[in-house]
Structure formats: structure tokens, C-alpha cells
Design a protein that fits this description.
Elements lengths: L21 H9 L12 E3 L8 E4 L4 E10 L6 H18 L3 E11 L6 H18 L3 E8 L4 E11 L14 E4 L5 H9 L5 H11 L5 H6 L4 E6 L4 H13 L1 E6 L8 H9 L5 H10 L8 H7 L8 E5 L4 H10 L5 E8 L5 E4 L1
Parallel strand pairs: 4-5, 9-12
Antiparallel strand pairs: 1-2, 2-3, 3-6, 4-6, 7-10, 7-11, 8-10, 9-11
Helix pairs in contact: 2-3, 4-5, 7-9
Length: about 350
């Protein structure tokens, strides 16, 4: 039975870690009537290549970017839950190089067990993030169900000639990440009551940081591909990018940024590994070079509102890093793109 004083007690998964496993999702889509050869006038990006959002050509040099994202609580504080869910949803538009214009809320709430005012705090948190992004939270839809779930649909705009997709990376490109890994492990520790105040503050600050730099990066020549790292973990999202680009990634593990390594190791040893880590490993391990245990729990860790993963031509390195600095985004070079190899993702110990 759920502890009604704790939002995270309602579901074994939380945040983006409650995503349907990637291999199962393919089964769902396979049975959904999707026809890869089907075309729609003006639809530039659908879900055929695992992009972050759908894109529709408006016919005036601009395109509409549209996405939706929602999940179960990853923290117990309702206001913070709303902020994290909103930042995570907005990220999909930024990852396409777009600028959000407005959002609508999606609220599922168990009114028999949790007060309506608590749901209002969740929405207030989301509204605060939307204000930071400079957009209105203009409405939404709500239903009364047994579990709390929250998220947004977000509409944005992007110049049609500057849409940045999941595919498009080229051999020789540099790979960047804008947030450290470890959010799934720390969130699991929070749920189990094993996180320290330092752990909690790091996770909440990281998850509520907006990926606004994506809109600026999309305007730069030489930014060939971009996505955000969420529930499928770094390896999963990097695999999707390399598959869509028909390339491979060469990534030294020592360059992968994380929360405190010693702390993550302690939490992993204490059993704080999200269910999503195993789902991700089962899906992607065969197309990834062998990894050690301590690499596995970091590289396949499901992130919630994680950083941007960017493939950049070497000539654009200085311009990209300058935009990152201007937007207070972290600069983490994590490897490079190569021609297609036996594995889509090659981890170098």
C-alpha cells in the first residue's frame, strides 16, 4: 500500500526510469499500425528515427516543434516534482534546436489519497519552470486515477533550415554532454531514504536545470546531431544517435562526467540501482563493447531531465563551447564519432 505522505511510494519506477523498456516499446509501436512508408504533408520529423519531438513545416521558414513527456514522482516534494517534470518536457524542444512557446499540463491525481492542494503545488512548480523558460503554462487536462503522474505537452518554434535531429552525426565529430550522470542512482537512494542532503540537493539542482543552450546550439553550423539523455541512459541515447547516423561512438570511460564517483559506488553497493538500468542493459549490451560492473551502473543509469548529447564538427568546437559558457552550461567532451564498427558504442577503459 502506498505511503500517502510520500509521492515516490506509489510506483516502483520513478521519473524517466518508469519508461517502457526500449525493446518492449518497439513491440508496442510494431503493433500500433505505424507505416514507415506513410507520409503526411508538412510533417518533417515523426517517430521513425527516435527523435525527441515531432516537427511540422509551417511553410514560412519556420517549423512547429511539438512534444509531450510525463512520469511518476521522482521526489517527494510536490513543487520540486513539478519543476523537474517541466524541465524534462521542455528539454525535448531544446534538443531539436527549438525555442519553446507554450505548454499544457497533463495531471493524473489520486484524489482519494492525496489532497488536491498537493496537485496544485505540482502545477505551481511546473509553472515556475515555464516562467524561467519565458513561456506560459496555458492550461491542460486532469483525471482522477490511483497513481500520481505529471508532465507537459510543449510547443516550440525552430527555423526550418536549422532543425537538429537525433541522426546526422559524422565520423570525426566531437561528442559533448552537458550534465553529469548518476541521477537514477541518487534518485533511487532518495526513494529508499538512503540519500544525504548533499545527494538530494545535487540531484534536484541538476534535474531542474534547463537545457536552453540547445536553442542556441541549433543555430550554429557544425552541430550535426543532438538529443537529451533521459530514461535510456547515456549508452541508450548514444546508441540511438549512432544508429540514426550509421556511425559508431568511441568513448573513454574516464571522460564520462558523473556525480561523486565514490558516493555512486557506495550507493550501488547498497542496492540503489534503478530497475531501468537492467532494462537498458538488456536492450543495448549486444551493440556496446563489454563494460565492467562499475561502468554498467553509470552508463546504463536512466536519467531524468538529463543533459544534452551533441555531435559537433571539430571546426565548430570553439563556437559551441562559447555558447555553452554564455548559457552557463557545463562543457564535458566525452568522445568522438567514428565510421560504423562492430559495435555502435565502443567504451574505452
Amino acid at each position: 500500500m502506498a505511503d500517502t505522505s510520500r509521492l515516490t511510494s506509489f510506483n516502483p519506477g520513478s521519473g524517466c526510469g518508469c519508461k517502457i523498456a526500449p525493446n518492449v516499446l518497439q513491440e508496442v509501436l510494431g503493433a500500433s499500425g505505424f507505416l514507415p512508408q506513410e507520409t503526411w504533408p508538412g510533417l518533417l520529423v515523426g517517430h521513425d528515427a527516435n527523435d525527441d519531438a515531432a516537427v511540422m513545416d509551417l511553410g514560412d521558414g519556420r517549423s512547429l516543434v511539438h512534444t509531450t513527456d510525463f512520469f511518476t514522482p521522482i521526489v517527494d516534494d510536490p513543487f520540486t516534482f513539478g519543476r523537474i517534470a517541466a524541465a524534462n518536457a521542455l528539454s525535448d524542444v531544446y534538443a531539436m534546436g527549438g525555442t519553446p512557446q507554450m505548454a499544457l499540463a497533463l495531471l493524473c491525481w489520486p484524489l482519494q489519497t492525496l489532497p488536491a492542494t498537493m496537485a496544485g503545488e505540482v502545477i505551481a512548480g511546473a509553472r515556475s519552470i515555464c516562467r524561467e523558460a519565458g513561456i506560459p503554462l496555458a492550461g491542460g487536462h486532469s483525471i482522477d486515477v490511483p497513481q500520481p503522474i505529471f508532465g507537459l505537452t510543449v510547443t516550440g518554434i525552430v527555423p526550418t533550415n536549422r532543425i537538429v535531429r537525433n541522426g546526422g552525426a559524422q565520423p570525426g565529430d566531437l561528442l559533448y554532454l552537458t550534465k553529469p550522470l548518476g541521477l537514477g542512482i541518487v534518485a533511487t537512494a532518495m526513494k529508499k531514504g538512503m540519500a544525504t542532503e548533499e545527494d538530494r540537493l545535487w540531484a534536484e539542482q541538476t534535474m531542474t536545470e534547463l537545457n536552453q543552450v540547445g536553442a542556441a546550439l541549433g543555430a550554429l553550423p557544425g552541430v550535426h546531431a543532438m538529443t537529451d539523455v533521459t530514461g535510456f541512459g547515456l549508452v541508450g541515447h548514444l546508441h540511438e544517435m549512432m544508429s540514426a547516423s550509421d556511425c559508431s561512438a568511441h568513448m573513454p570511460f574516464s571522460q564520462v562526467p558523473t556525480y561523486r564517483t565514490d558516493r555512486l559506488a557506495d550507493l550501488y553497493a547498497a542496492g540503489c540501482m534503478p530497475q531501468g538500468t537492467t532494462k537498458n542493459y538488456v536492450t543495448y549490451y549486444s551493440d556496446c563493447s563489454p563494460v565492467r560492473g562499475e561502468q554498467l551502473f553509470v552508463l546504463f543509469d536512466p536519467q531524468t531531465s538529463g543533459g544534452l548529447l551533441i555531435a559537433v564538427h571539430p571546426d565548430a568546437k570553439d563556437a559551441v563551447e562559447a555558447e555553452m559558457i554564455a548559457h552557463d552550461a557545463a562543457i564535458y567532451p566525452i568522445g568522438e564519432v567514428t565510421a560504423s564498427q562492430d559495435h555502435r558504442v565502443v567504451i574505452v577503459s
